[in-house]
Amino acid sequence: MLSEQDLKQIADKGITVEKLNMQLEEFKTGFPFLKLEAAASVEHGIIATSQEEVKKYESIWEEYKAQGHSIVKFVPASGAASRMFKDMFAFVDADYDVPTTDFEKKYFDNIEKFAFYDELDKACLNNTGKSIKELMAEGRYKEVAANMLKSEGLNYGQLPKGMLLFHKYEEGPRTPMEEHLVEGALYAASDGRAAVHFTVSHDHLPMFKQRVADKADYYAKKYGIIYDISFSEQKPSTDTVAANADNTPFRNSDGSLLFRPGGHGALIENLNEINADVIFIKNIDNVVPDRLKADTVTYKQVIAGILVSLQKRAFEYLRKLDSGAYSHEKLEEIIRFVQHDLCCRKSDIKELEDADLVLYLKKKLNRPMRVCGVVKNVGEPGGGPFLTYNQDGTVSLQILESSQIDKNNAEYMEMFTKGTHFNPVDLVCAVKDYNGQPFNLPDFVDRTTGFISSKSKDGKELKALELPGLWNGAMSDWNTIFVEVPLATFNPVKTVNDLLREQHQ
Fold first, then answer.
1. What is the pLDDT of residues 386-433, one digit of tens each?
2. Which residue in 98, 153, 280, 300 could disulfide with 187, CB within 3.0 to 4.6 Å?
3. Is 172 domain-assigned?
4. 485: number of CA atoms within 13 Å, CB side?
5. Is residue 164 part of a domain?
6. d(Cα 336, Cα 200) in Å, to the nearest integer?
7. Do 287 and 166 meet the contact criterion of CB atoms below 8 Å apart?
């Protein structure tokens, strides 16, 4: 039963009692696994572009930008970097004093190569009176690591990834946030303006704003554009209640309900509030220095060119269907477009009467559209491109995470492990309809694609509820197109030593 205190707590978050009860019910019932048809491949659902096509789509995108459409680059940036430094936290707490594991040795052997080296050196001098080199010569390695991680030094163990110094340049080191500003100028600017939106956590917002205030003018001058930089926070109403093993609400030591952020799927609400014709989405840590940006810029323009050319056709067909002035041949042409170009298939489509067929085609054409860059699978964790069955029995392209796949189904596991490509979160989205009205994006979420994970709090086990992921279930009812992009466009930073990879030097 919910107490008065509970009701006040959920009302303050903007959560209804119905929503809370629904979440508790989901803990009991769990979520169904998805029914799969096949892993997508270049022969089956993934477009591989030739050099001529690359040129063609780049020029289509250039033309689109020149028409003055509104374009926004959307960057989820609320994650803290703590996981990046897991190994270095372990070293600070270890019962030995010198680098012992391969990870630790690599970090200290190459410490001068990190973009944050000079800042760390200053912190060490301030706090210990000695430089990094002097501390290492005296065997005081832990103090170096502690100055990187702890609040009295750089505080990297608590900062968001977007605020760490990633790359070295002549004019000084850059954070991932700045690299995204540069990218925005290179492929997402229209009418001399580049709009970049970051989703950040509440605690980190002042820091992001400060960095923008310090740096944005420099990049605006460098690229001859005006920036329109905005921020949003994950809404408290998208938090989900935690549960005990018996599916009753988990309570904190003071008796209040424990709510947790609902994962990146919560950001569909933030995305829904962005007023733009086209939105690029890319993770905060997937950036490279300028010398390697050419591929990224080219293929961002390619996937955007493919998006606006498919959208143009979808709009023409919708207007045609609206007019009522179409022949059976025209319907056949629209079916081919939905089945072949948008990869959305219905097995009994031949049995539909023309009137039902028109309704079906309208429904499938009149919805948000996204083109996702996918890269060849090199064993990185992440979602993969699949052909899956939807709630209405049609088959379409989806990005799936491993949690959505039934581990006991040998056929599905084989599809998952042998998948040729995966999704590095490289999306470009069209979010307005053919009348120029924005779609309400929460209407296109498949609510059955959330998942339950095991966590703990204060030493007690709990069950956590993740909302349908932003690029998985939250976009389940969109038109999805997959395009192969080069591996060079995907360079995430998962651990601090990833910054030593050649791509980040």
1. 999 988 889 999 998 877 888 888 888 888 887 888 888 899 999 999
2. 300
3. no
4. 29
5. no
6. 42
7. yes
DSSP string for residues in 202-235? GGGHHHHHHHHHHHHHHHHHHHT-EEEEEEE---
Query: Tokens 């219905």 belong to which residue?
Result: 346
Q: What is the DSSP string of 15-56?
A: --HHHHHHHHHHHHH--PPPPEEEE-BTTBBEE---HHHHHH
Q: Could you tell me if residue 177 is inside a domain?
A: no
99 and 115, same domain (yes or no): yes
Instruction: Show the domain range for 94.
Output: 82-158
Helical spans, DSSP H, in 259-327? 268-272, 293-323
What is the tens place of the pLDDT at every residue in 127-142? 999 999 999 999 999 9
Quick one: 123 and 269 in the same domain?
A: no
Calculate Rg over the CA atoms of the chain.
Answer: 25
Q: How many domains does the chain have?
A: 2
- Do residue 70 and residue 123 come from a single domain? no
77 with 94, same domain: the answer is no
Nearest-angstrom CA–CA distance, 260 and 245: 16
pTM above 0.90, yes or no: yes
Q: Are residues 373 and 488 in the same domain?
A: yes
* Phi, then psi, of 162 in degrees rounded to 5: -60, -15
**Cα angle at 56 between 51 and 61, to 5 degrees?**
125
Q: Distance between CA 488 and CA 490 in Å, rounded?
A: 5
Residue 442: name the closest of 261, 268, 275, 279 by CA: 268
Q: Is 406 exposed, middle or buried (0-12, 13-18, 19+ CB in 10 A)?
A: middle
Is residue 176 situated within a structural domain?
Answer: no
